[in-house]
C-alpha cells in the first residue's frame, strides 16, 4: 500500500476556531437580555440551518444569521447597540489571531517530508487564506482547496487533482461528518482527531469497523499512523 | 504564437451582476428616507472600502456593509423594518436567477472547441458556484478558480496550474483593473469587454498601446480575436 497525499482540515484541526465562534455566541446571548439563553441558541441554530443553503459556511454568514436572530426575537426592535455589537463581533472574528493547536507544527513538518499535503477547508475564502497565512504553515502545503461543501465528490476531485487519487490518500480532521465519512466513501483513508467542542451541524457517528478508518486523540500521532500504512 | 488557454471573468462578463447590486442599492437608498441619496451612497462606498480587507468581495460582505451604513447614518436607530429589509435584499441577491449576457453561449461553445477555458472570479465561494451551475455553462470549463484577489501572481498561478503558462493564455473580462491590467503584467494577453456599468472599485485606465491588449464591444468577437493571434 502506498500513500502519497495527506489532506488536512483547517478549523479545529490545525488551529482553534469553534471556541472563537462559541465566545462570540456567548457575547451575542448577553445582548438579548430579555430572552432565555436556550431559546436564543435554538433560534440561532434554526436560522443558521435555514440560511446555510444561501450563505454557505463562515463568519460572514454567521454574523448575518445573528443579526436576523436578534431582529426576529425582538420583534424588529432589538436593544440599543445590539446590531452594532454583532457587526463588531463579526469583524473581530475575521481579525482574530490564529492559534495553532498543540503538536501541529511538528506533525506537519514531519508529514511534509514524505507526503504531499493538501489543505481542504470550508468557510469564507478570504478568511481561510488569512488564517493559513497567519498560521505560518502555508509553505508546508502543496495545495489549498477552499470548498463550499465536503462530500464524496469533493474528495475524489481534490485527491485526483493534487495527488494520485483517493486510494493513495489520507484525510484527517475533527469532523466525522465532513472530514471522515465522505473521505472514506471516496475510497481514501480517514483519521478522526476530535476537537474539544464540535459544531452541532458537524456531528455524526463513527464508522463501524472500517478498515481505512482511524481515531487519534492528537495530531502528534498522525505521522506514525500514516507511515505504518504506507510502504511508499 | 500559440494560445492554449482562455481565462474568463464571470460577473458582468458572462452574466449580469452589477445591475443586481445597483437595484439592491436603490432599494437600500429608499429605506433611509431621512437622508440624501448621494450622502448615503458616499458613506456606503466608504464603509465597503473599509471592510474589503476583512470581508473580501461578494454579496454577504455587501449586505453587512449596508447594515453598518444604516446603523451609522441613523445614529443606531434606523427606520422600523430597515434591517430586515436589508437582510431580505441580501438573501434575494443570493437566490437571484442568472441571466447570461448576449452572445455568451455561442462564444464559449466555439472557444471551448479549441482552447482550455478557465473561469477566474472573485466573490462568495458558494454564490459563484451556484451562478455557474445555474448558467448552464459549467461543462464548458476545464477549471474554475474562485479567488480572493485578482493580481499578477493570481494569473501566473492560474495559468501555470491549468494551462501552459500566462505566455500562451488570454484573459477576458469587464474589469480593466482586475481582469486586464494584472493579466498583462503576468505576461498573458488580455481583452477588455466592458459591461454597461462598472463598480467604482474596479475602474482603471486602459493600457497605452500594449501589444497583447485588445478591446471588444461584445464577447461575440472574442473567438476571432484569439484565433487571429494563435497558430496552435
CATH fourth-tier homologous superfamily of the largest domain in chain A = HAD superfamily/HAD-like
Name the beta content range of chain A. 5-15%
Nearest-integer average pLDDT of chain A: 95
Chain oligomer state: homodimer
Q: Rough shape of chain A?
A: elongated
CATH architecture term of the largest domain in chain A:
3-Layer(aba) Sandwich
Which regions of chain A are unreliable across 5 or more consecutive residues at pLDDT < 50?
A: none
Number of domains of chain A: 2
Number of strands of chain A: 6
Structural class of chain A: alpha/beta
Sheet with most strands: strand arrangement of chain A: 3-2-1-4-5-6
Radius of gyration of chain A: 19 Å
For the biggest sheet of chain A, the summary is: 6 strands, parallel
Through-space gap between termini of chain A:
7 Å
Which chain pair shows the most residues in contact? A-B, 30 and 30 residues
Keywords (chains A, B): Hydrolase
InterPro entries (chains A, B): HAD-like_sf (IPR036412), HAD_sf (IPR023214), PGP-like_dom2 (IPR023198), S-2-haloacid_dehalogenase (IPR051540)
Protein name (chains A, B): Putative hydrolase of the HAD superfamily
GO molecular function (chains A, B): hydrolase activity
Which keywords apply here?
homodimer, about 230 residues, alpha/beta, Rossmann fold, DNA polymerase, domain 1, 2 domains, six-stranded parallel beta sheet, about 45% helix, about 10% strand
Describe this structure in words.
Chains A, B: One of its GO terms (molecular function) is hydrolase activity. Chains A, B: InterPro entries: HAD-like_sf, HAD_sf, PGP-like_dom2, S-2-haloacid_dehalogenase. Chains A, B: This is Putative hydrolase of the HAD superfamily. Chains A, B: It comes from Brevundimonas basaltis. Chains A, B: It holds the Pfam family Hydrolase. The structure is a homodimer of 232-residue chains. Chain A has a 6-stranded parallel sheet, sandwiched between helices. In chain A, helix 1 packs antiparallel against helix 4, helix 3 (59-73) runs antiparallel to helix 4 (82-94) and helix 7 (152-162) crosses helix 8. In chain A, helix 8 (176-185) links the parallel strand 4 (169-173) and strand 5 (189-192). The radius of gyration of chain A is 19 Å and the shape is elongated. Chain A has helices spanning 18-31, 37-55, 59-73, 82-94, 104-114, 125-135, 152-162, 176-185, 222-227, and strands spanning 5-8, 116-121, 143-146, 169-173, 189-192, 213-215. Chain A has 2 domains: 5-16 and 99-227, Rossmann fold (3-Layer(aba) Sandwich); 18-94, DNA polymerase, domain 1. The mean pLDDT of chain A is 95. Helix content of chain A is 47%, strand content 11%. Chain A starts with a strand and ends in a 5-residue tail after the last helix. With 232 residues, chain A is an alpha/beta fold.
Amino acid at each position: 500500500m502506498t500513500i502519497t497525499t495527506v489532506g488536512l482540515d483547517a478549523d479545529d484541526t490545525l488551529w482553534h476556531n469553534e471556541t472563537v465562534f462559541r465566545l462570540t455566541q456567548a457575547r451575542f446571548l448577553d445582548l438579548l437580555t430579555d430572552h432565555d439563553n436556550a431559546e436564543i441558541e435554538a433560534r440561532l441554530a434554526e436560522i443558521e440551518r435555514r440560511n446555510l443553503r444561501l450563505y454557505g459556511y463562515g463568519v460572514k454568514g454567521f454574523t448575518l444569521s445573528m443579526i436576523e436572530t436578534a431582529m426576529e426575537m425582538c420583534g424588529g426592535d432589538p436593544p440599543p447597540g445590539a446590531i452594532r455589537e454583532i457587526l463588531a463581533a463579526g469583524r473581530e472574528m475575521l481579525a482574530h489571531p490564529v492559534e495553532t493547536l498543540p503538536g501541529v507544527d511538528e506533525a506537519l513538518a514531519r508529514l511534509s517530508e514524505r507526503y504531499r499535503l493538501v489543505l481542504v477547508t470550508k468557510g469564507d475564502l478570504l478568511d481561510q487564506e488569512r488564517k493559513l497565512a497567519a498560521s505560518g504553515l502555508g509553505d508546508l502545503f502543496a495545495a489549498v482547496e477552499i470548498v463550499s461543501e465536503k462530500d464524496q465528490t469533493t474528495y475524489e476531485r481534490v485527491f485526483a487533482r493534487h495527488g494520485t487519487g483517493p486510494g493513495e490518500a489520507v484525510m484527517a480532521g475533527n469532523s466525522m461528518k465532513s472530514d471522515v465519512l465522505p473521505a472514506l466513501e471516496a475510497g481514501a483513508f480517514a483519521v478522526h482527531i476530535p476537537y474539544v467542542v464540535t459544531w452541532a451541524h458537524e456531528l455524526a457517528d463513527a464508522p463501524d469497523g472500517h478498515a481505512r478508518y482511524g481515531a487519534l486523540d492528537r495530531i502528534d500521532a498522525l505521522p506514525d499512523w500514516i507511515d505504518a500504512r504506507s510502504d511508499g
